């Protein structure tokens, strides 16, 4: 089942999602919904409802993982599966690292959420470069291997960006302005 926005917020409460993580997830959902709507408008088969739900749920495991040290994407996927949210479980499980990305393949909700997450720092839309600098500072200090993996992941994100925006009527640099001037999540389905 694809959860409604209300169900996503209920689960955020149930799993004690921290307010800053909730604010981040809402902004990721707003950015992702704009991209998904743009792709739908361009004639591509994308579920806006699934994209928004996946974006709202993408960090559902993060608060718990702060205490346990577990991979929050994998923990979030498990939480989705335990709550019969199979349709968004892969989006949640792959929001950090995409599997099987094809630059010339069909569009997917996973790609949109993966990309939108990389564009939101806390609750503000930033450039990929700004987000990369933050991630490297926050998580990559003194860890050469991890820094390298993060950089490689952001290089893939640039390819995702190129793929998503080649068929959109707006460009990556306008994402923050468009989201700021956009509709609320409830208007997207």
Explain this structure:
The mean pLDDT is 93. The chain has ten helices and two strands, in the order αααααααββααα. Helix 3 (48-57) crosses helix 7 and helix 8 (128-139) runs antiparallel to helix 9 (144-165). The protein has helices at residues 5-14, 19-41, 48-57, 62-68, 72-82, 86-93, 109-119, 128-139, 144-165, 175-180; strands at residues 120-121, 124-125. The protein is 63% helix and 2% strand. The chain is mainly alpha-helical and 189 residues long. The protein has a two-stranded antiparallel ribbon. The radius of gyration is 15 Å and the shape is globular. The chain has a single domain (5-188), classed as Hypothetical protein af1432.
Helix/strand layout:
Blueprint: H1 5-14, H2 19-41, H3 48-57, H4 62-68, H5 72-82, H6 86-93, H7 109-119, E1 120-121, E2 124-125, H8 128-139, H9 144-165, H10 175-180
Antiparallel strand pairs: 1-2
Task: Give a short synopsis of this structure.
With 189 residues, the protein is an all-alpha fold. The chain has helices at 5-14, 19-41, 48-57, 62-68, 72-82, 86-93, 109-119, 128-139, 144-165, 175-180; strands spanning 120-121, 124-125. A two-stranded antiparallel ribbon has the order 1-2.
């Amino acid at each position: 089942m694809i959860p409604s926005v209300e169900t996503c917020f209920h689960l955020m409460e149930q799993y004690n999602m921290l307010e800053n993580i909730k604010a981040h997830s809402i902004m990721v959902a707003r950015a992702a919904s704009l991209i998904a709507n743009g792709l739908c408008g361009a004639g591509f088969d994308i579920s806006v409802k699934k994209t928004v739900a996946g974006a709202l749920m993408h960090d559902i495991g993060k608060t718990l993982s702060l205490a346990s040290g577990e991979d929050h994407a994998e923990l979030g996927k498990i939480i989705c599966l335990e709550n019969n949210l199979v349709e968004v479980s892969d989006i949640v499980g792959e929001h950090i690292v995409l599997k099987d990305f094809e630059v010339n393949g069909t569009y997917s909700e996973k790609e949109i959420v993966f990309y939108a997450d990389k564009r939101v720092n806390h609750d503000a839309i930033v450039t990929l470069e700004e987000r990369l600098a933050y991630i490297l500072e926050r998580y990559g200090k003194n860890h050469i291997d991890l820094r390298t993996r993060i950089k490689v992941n952001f290089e893939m994100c640039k390819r995702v960006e190129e793929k998503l925006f080649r068929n959109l009527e707006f460009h990556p640099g306008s994402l923050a302005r468009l989201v700021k001037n956009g509709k609320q999540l409830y208007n997207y389905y």
